Each structure stands twice: as structure tokens, then as C-alpha cells.
């Protein structure tokens, strides 16, 4: 059974869940056994770009790969706002001013760092067991709580046309780019919504290496388009355990042992040249599992 990733270039107009279902069907048709599959970081239906999909045991790595730094290309329309904060929604505010590039740059700079962000009401956030977008579509009144997000950079690339500006945004997982458009605009005393969004990078996964659904469907050897776990984890330090069979047995049975020369932080853990998972040193300098992949 293959445990690996598909670096999918999701097209606009498709939900992330539908993209995963399509990939799952194609892989099974090509003889890939799948017991578990899931994506790392939802992309809105209208958005396109990198959607990492994990297969089988690779799904266990979500907490370590799913919240890594992401890079987006986005286009914001200033002077109006929609109820969804993107172009799929209905206009709820119009006639706002078009800010200057200097105003936008100053407003964007104020969002850099760890900051509170209010998610869009049309989002997958859970509200008393229901999705926020379900409540919003039903016209129900509800409030979402702000959440802490990390924004590393917002670069203004230029003006595409009157009132439409393009950006490159680097941020942590869980950041809503639609909310970034709204917040920049509010700081400029106006409105905005997101017209286009492309995720160019999500942790290890890059749009330049991503494959399309057509690529997968047309592939004669599907394994050439699958990213091995070791490749996706290559930025973690590697540690090869040296020891006898008894040490190996104890480690695999969850016994925390002191091992020589373990690196700091989370590292890839190998036994006899085989990737077994991610580990780290505990406070007593003993090995402890973070993720087991065997």
C-alpha cells in the first residue's frame, strides 16, 4: 500500500472535497490501494492551485505539513464588498473609494505578524455543530470569533485595472485571504472583495511541480506523479538509529530510550534505513514518537 502525496493543482470551480474524490477514483482505477485519503488545507471552490492530498499513512502528517507556510497570488477589487468576500457573492456595499497604492501598502503592513482575523461568514468554520456557510445561506444571524493567524508578508504587485490590485501573500495555515482583502480595505476607509486566488505554495508542495487531474487520468505509470513521504519531509533533520534488535523492539513498542546524538526539534526517524516516523527528544533526553508511519 502506497503512503505518499499527490501535489494537485486544483482547478477553479471545484470544491476541495470533490477534487479529493476525483483523485481517489482515478488512483483506484489505476490499481492504487487506498484505505484513507485527505487534503491538507481547504481551497475555496473559486480558488485554484496547490492542494496537497495525502494517501494512507501520509494522512498522519497533517499537523506537521498541513499548517506550514503558504504563498498565494490574489487579486482584490476595491470599492465594493460582497457577502462572501469573493466574486461569487452578492454585492452588499458599493461606491467606496479606490485607495492609492501607498494607502494599500501602509494598510497591508499593519497586518503583518500574528494578528486576530475574523473569518468570513461564508466559510467552513463550525458554529454549534453546523458550518458557517450553511447558516449564512439560510439567512440566520450568528457571530464568528476572531482567530489568531500569522501573516509573514503582503506584497502589492500592481494595479491590473482601475480599482483591481494584485498581491502576493505569505502566511501561515488557517489564514483567510478573503478576510485580508476586507481588512486592508477597511483600514483604507473603503470596501474590497477577492476576485482571484491561486495558492502557489503550501509547505513543501509547489505549483511548479503540481499535477492536474488530467495528468493523473492520462498517466501510464501513476507512481511517477506521486510524492514519497521522504521527499515531503526532507526539510526535517534525519536520524538513523544505531542499536541492536532489542533496542529496535523496545522503540517500536513505545518505550522511550536515550539514544545518542539525536538532533534538536522534530526529526525523521529511521531504523535500518527505513523511514519509521517523526520523533523528538523529551525533557529527559529520551526519544519519543511524534508520528508513527509504520
User: How helix-rich are the residues, as a percent range?
Assistant: 10-25%
CATH-assigned homologous superfamily of the largest domain: Pseudouridine synthase
Weakly predicted, low-confidence segments:
none
Strand content: 25-35%
Cα(first) to Cα(last) distance is 12 Å
Number of domains: 3
The count of strands amounts to 18
Write down the Rg: 22 Å
The total count of helices amounts to 8
> Could you describe the largest sheet, including whether it forms a barrel?
10 strands, mixed
CATH class of the largest domain: Alpha Beta
Averaged pLDDT, please? 92
- Structural class, from helix and strand content? alpha+beta
- CATH level 3 topology of the largest domain: Pseudouridine synthase
Globally, the shape reads globular
Mind telling me which CATH architecture of the largest domain this is?
A: 2-Layer Sandwich
How are helices and strands ordered from N to C?
EHEEHEEEHEEEHEEHEEHEHEHEEE
Write up this protein.
- The chain has 294 residues and is α+β, with helices and mostly antiparallel strands.
- It folds into 3 domains: 88 residues, Pseudouridine synthase (2-Layer Sandwich); 133 residues, Pseudouridine synthase, CATH 3.30.2350; 55 residues, Archaeosine Trna-guanine Transglycosylase, Chain: A, domain 4.
- It has 8 helices and 18 strands.
- The strands form 4 sheets. Strands 1, 2, 3, 4, 7, 10, 11, 12, 13 and 14 form a 10-stranded mixed beta sheet that branches. Strands 15-16-17-18 form a 4-stranded mixed beta sheet, with no helix packed on it. It has a two-stranded antiparallel sheet with strand order 5-6.
- β15, α8 and β16 form a beta-alpha-beta unit.
- The longest helix has 14 residues.
- It starts with a strand and ends with a strand.
Amino acid at each position: 500500500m502506497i503512503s505518499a502525496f499527490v501535489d494537485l493543482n486544483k482547478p477553479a470551480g471545484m470544491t476541495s472535497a470533490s477534487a479529493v474524490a476525483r483523485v481517489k477514483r482515478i488512483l483506484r482505477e489505476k490499481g492504487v490501494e487506498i484505505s484513507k485519503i485527505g487534503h491538507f488545507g481547504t481551497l475555496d471552490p473559486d480558488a485554484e492551485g496547490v492542494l496537497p492530498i495525502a494517501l494512507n499513512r501520509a494522512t498522519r502528517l497533517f499537523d506537521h505539513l498541513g499548517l506550514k507556510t503558504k504563498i498565494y497570488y490574489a487579486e482584490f477589487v476595491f470599492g465594493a464588498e460582497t457577502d462572501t468576500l469573493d466574486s461569487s457573492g452578492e454585492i452588499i456595499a458599493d461606491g467606496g473609494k479606490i485607495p492609492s497604492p501607498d494607502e494599500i501598502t501602509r494598510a497591508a503592513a499593519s497586518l503583518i505578524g500574528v494578528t486576530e482575523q475574523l473569518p468570513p461568514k461564508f466559510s467552513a468554520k463550525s458554529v454549534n455543530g453546523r458550518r458557517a456557510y450553511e447558516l449564512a445561506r439560510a439567512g440566520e444571524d450568528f457571530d464568528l470569533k476572531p482567530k489568531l493567524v500569522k501573516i509573514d508578508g503582503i506584497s502589492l504587485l500592481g494595479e491590473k485595472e482601475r480599482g483591481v490590485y494584485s498581491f502576493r501573500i505569505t502566511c501561515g495555515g488557517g489564514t483567510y485571504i478573503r478576510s485580508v482583502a476586507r481588512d486592508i480595505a477597511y483600514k483604507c476607509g473603503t470596501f474590497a472583495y477577492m476576485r482571484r486566488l491561486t495558492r502557489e505554495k503550501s509547505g513543501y508542495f509547489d505549483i511548479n511541480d503540481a499535477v492536474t487531474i488530467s495528468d493523473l487520468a492520462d498517466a501510464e505509470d501513476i507512481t511517477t506523479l506521486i510524492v514519497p513521504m521522504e521527499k515531503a519531509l526532507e526539510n526535517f533533520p534525519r536520524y538513523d538509529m544505531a542499536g541492536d534488535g532489542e533496542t529496535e523492539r523496545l522503540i517500536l513498542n513505545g518505550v522511550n530510550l536515550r539514544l545518542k546524538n539525536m538532533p534538536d526539534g522534530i526529526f525523521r526517524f529511521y531504523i535500518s534505513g527505513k523511514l519509521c516516523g517523526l520523533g523528538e527528544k523529551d525533557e529527559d533526553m529520551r526519544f519519543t514518537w511524534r508520528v508513527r508511519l509504520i
